[in-house]
């Protein structure tokens, strides 16, 4: 346990670590806002830059894909070079990439800047969970993760609303560009505060970065997501299917490479011993499925409201506010009250409630077509938001509950990677579940918005199927309440799988 963890309540050192928490949570909020703020601006960006549907997917999915590819590496870099150092460098890079996004003169430049943003976020975000993990005592985890979950809810709420208002206000005639430029003052303040209040920490035995592992992990993900996103526009050529199939053996080679490094006593990119912890292994599978479902729903839901229903960015954002606000409240209740008492049951109840919300969404969209109103969508948004709050932060807490402190960076990086990998896959699946329906519609259906409503209802079936699978996978999670984060696996023997023989 480090000095910060032993600081007595109310002491100067204790206040310092809570200020440090505010700094890293602000960085997390930046990432969350930036991941969601673009959705409400998509129609404006498309018109202003004359972007294709594929470009739209890459403006959102490029960030997510780069984020997913770099997260494991980002977590490991913090272990090796120091979490404060990596956090500060990545915050600086994120701020610069935000400026480049705001100054983009075409879809290609914007996609490139968004990918750079994703890379920087991939270095920054794992340090958030790692710094939290090594700074606070296990008994403080409920309060800290409750705050982390609340920030997630605030990000989900504020991103679309801020984006919508900035687009509508058209500040200085800049149109959509302030949605990225707003990050500049926040990033600068974060850098100053981080330099003053963050304490350096690193894993005691980390040696060097596994560059071959980075290349193999990145390649396997790219082989899967790139053809999913580009294949539809190219009329699904043979190479798209070959690439997706090739992603599987590439991932197998990556795992074999990690095992070889462990046998050679070299530092692996992924600490495979983490998968001997049942809560971690099962939680990773749930996160992948849930992330895929949410990625698909977030993009298609934004397009449904603004293009299908013809709502303005502000109208769509204010309606979605119900979703994010409900999620923020639900997360706090779930982490502080429900998880300590009911454990896995909370996640399963959230999954069932999300399925009910998605069915309600489908019923409204199908019955009202292009005439759906905010009042008709409000109940299902509240249900879905409450369900999401019962899943997101509790799932993160469950996955990291029994991870040893020395593997905090690797575990948090892998946790975020799997979630973002699912998001990237979900955004790619929009080509099949959503845009294929839009492409197959008549010109009249597209101009009226009906094609975009049909695409959304079709994608909802995919989302429902994903949540059903996530619910079933939750049975593999430990049935008891999760141990406090930072407890060594040896002290939670009922939650550790037997080593493979």
Automatic annotation (TrEMBL):
<protein>
    <submittedName>
        <fullName>MFS transporter</fullName>
    </submittedName>
</protein>
<feature type="transmembrane region" description="Helical">
    <location>
        <begin position="18"/>
        <end position="42"/>
    </location>
</feature>
<dbReference type="InterPro" id="IPR020846">
    <property type="entry name" value="MFS_dom"/>
</dbReference>
<dbReference type="InterPro" id="IPR011701">
    <property type="entry name" value="MFS"/>
</dbReference>
<feature type="transmembrane region" description="Helical">
    <location>
        <begin position="313"/>
        <end position="334"/>
    </location>
</feature>
<feature type="transmembrane region" description="Helical">
    <location>
        <begin position="111"/>
        <end position="132"/>
    </location>
</feature>
<feature type="domain" description="Major facilitator superfamily (MFS) profile">
    <location>
        <begin position="20"/>
        <end position="481"/>
    </location>
</feature>
<feature type="compositionally biased region" description="Acidic residues">
    <location>
        <begin position="491"/>
        <end position="501"/>
    </location>
</feature>
<feature type="transmembrane region" description="Helical">
    <location>
        <begin position="238"/>
        <end position="256"/>
    </location>
</feature>
<feature type="transmembrane region" description="Helical">
    <location>
        <begin position="346"/>
        <end position="365"/>
    </location>
</feature>
<feature type="transmembrane region" description="Helical">
    <location>
        <begin position="144"/>
        <end position="169"/>
    </location>
</feature>
<dbReference type="InterPro" id="IPR036259">
    <property type="entry name" value="MFS_trans_sf"/>
</dbReference>
<feature type="transmembrane region" description="Helical">
    <location>
        <begin position="54"/>
        <end position="74"/>
    </location>
</feature>
<keyword id="KW-1133">Transmembrane helix</keyword>
<feature type="transmembrane region" description="Helical">
    <location>
        <begin position="417"/>
        <end position="435"/>
    </location>
</feature>
<dbReference type="GO" id="GO:0022857">
    <property type="term" value="F:transmembrane transporter activity"/>
</dbReference>
<feature type="transmembrane region" description="Helical">
    <location>
        <begin position="86"/>
        <end position="105"/>
    </location>
</feature>
<keyword id="KW-0046">Antibiotic resistance</keyword>
<feature type="transmembrane region" description="Helical">
    <location>
        <begin position="206"/>
        <end position="226"/>
    </location>
</feature>
<keyword id="KW-0472">Membrane</keyword>
<dbReference type="GO" id="GO:0046677">
    <property type="term" value="P:response to antibiotic"/>
</dbReference>
<dbReference type="Pfam" id="PF07690">
    <property type="entry name" value="MFS_1"/>
</dbReference>
<feature type="transmembrane region" description="Helical">
    <location>
        <begin position="175"/>
        <end position="194"/>
    </location>
</feature>
<keyword id="KW-0812">Transmembrane</keyword>
<feature type="region of interest" description="Disordered">
    <location>
        <begin position="482"/>
        <end position="501"/>
    </location>
</feature>
<feature type="transmembrane region" description="Helical">
    <location>
        <begin position="459"/>
        <end position="477"/>
    </location>
</feature>
<dbReference type="GO" id="GO:0005886">
    <property type="term" value="C:plasma membrane"/>
</dbReference>
<feature type="transmembrane region" description="Helical">
    <location>
        <begin position="377"/>
        <end position="405"/>
    </location>
</feature>
<feature type="transmembrane region" description="Helical">
    <location>
        <begin position="277"/>
        <end position="307"/>
    </location>
</feature>
């Amino acid at each position: 346990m480090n000095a910060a963890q032993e600081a007595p309540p109310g002491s100067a050192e204790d206040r310092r670590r809570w200020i440090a928490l505010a700094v890293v949570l602000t960085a997390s909020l930046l990432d969350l806002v930036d991941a969601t703020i673009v959705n409400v601006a998509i129609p404006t960006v498309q018109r202003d830059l004359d972007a294709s549907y594929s470009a739209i997917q890459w403006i959102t999915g490029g960030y997510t894909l780069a984020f997913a590819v770099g997260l494991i590496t980002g977590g490991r870099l913090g272990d090796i070079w120091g979490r404060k150092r990596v956090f500060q460098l990545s915050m600086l890079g994120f701020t610069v990439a935000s400026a480049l996004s705001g100054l983009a003169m075409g879809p290609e430049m914007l996609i490139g800047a968004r990918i750079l943003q994703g890379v920087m976020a991939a270095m920054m975000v794992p340090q958030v969970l790692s710094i939290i993990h090594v700074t606070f005592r296990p008994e403080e985890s409920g309060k800290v993760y409750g705050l982390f979950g609340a920030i997630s809810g605030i990000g989900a709420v504020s991103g679309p609303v801020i984006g919508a208002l900035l687009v509508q206000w058209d500040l200085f005639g800049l149109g959509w560009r302030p949605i990225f430029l707003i990050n500049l003052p926040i990033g600068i303040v974060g850098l100053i505060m981080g330099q003053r209040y963050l304490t350096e920490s690193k894993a005691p035995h980390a040696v060097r970065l596994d560059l071959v592992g980075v290349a193999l992990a990145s390649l396997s993900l790219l082989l899967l997501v790139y053809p999913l996103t580009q294949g539809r526009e190219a009329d699904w050529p043979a190479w798209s299917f070959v690439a997706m199939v090739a992603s599987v053996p590439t991932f197998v080679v990556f795992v074999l490479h990690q095992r070889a490094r462990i046998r050679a006593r070299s530092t692996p990119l992924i600490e495979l011993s983490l998968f001997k912890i049942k809560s971690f292994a099962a939680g990773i599978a749930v996160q992948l499925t849930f992330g895929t479902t949410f990625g698909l729903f977030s993009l298609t839901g934004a397009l449904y409201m603004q293009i299908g229903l013809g709502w303005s960015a502000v109208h769509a954002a204010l309606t979605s506010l119900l979703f994010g606000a409900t999620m923020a409240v639900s997360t706090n209740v779930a982490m502080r009250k429900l998880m300590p008492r009911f454990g896995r049951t909370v996640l399963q109840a959230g999954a069932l409630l999300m399925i009910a919300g998605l069915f309600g969404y489908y019923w409204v969209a199908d019955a009202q077509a292009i005439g759906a109103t905010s009042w008709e969508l409000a109940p299902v948004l509240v249900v879905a938001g409450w369900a999401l709050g019962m899943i997101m932060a509790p799932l993160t807490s469950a996955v990291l509950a029994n991870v040893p402190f020395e593997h905090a960076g690797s575990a948090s990086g892998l946790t975020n990677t799997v979630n973002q990998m699912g998001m990237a896959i979900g955004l790619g699946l929009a080509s099949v579940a959503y845009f294929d329906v839009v492409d197959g519609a008549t010109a009249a259906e597209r101009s009226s918005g009906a094609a975009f409503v049909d695409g959304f209802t079709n994608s909802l079936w995919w989302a429902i199927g994903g949540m059903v699978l996530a619910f079933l996978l939750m049975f593999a999670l430990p049935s008891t309440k999760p141990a406090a984060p930072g407890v060594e696996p040896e002290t939670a023997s009922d939650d550790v799988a037997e080593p493979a023989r």
